[in-house]
Amino acid sequence: MAHLTTAGLEAGLPRNYVRCCLALLVAEAPAHGYRLMESISQLGIRCNDAGFVYRTLRAMEADHHVASSWEESASGPARRTYRLTEAGVEWLNRSATSLAGTHGCLAAYLHRHRRLNETGQPRQTA
Question: Most exposed among 89, 97, 110, 126, judged by the fewest C-beta atoms under 10 Å?
Answer without folding.
Answer: 126
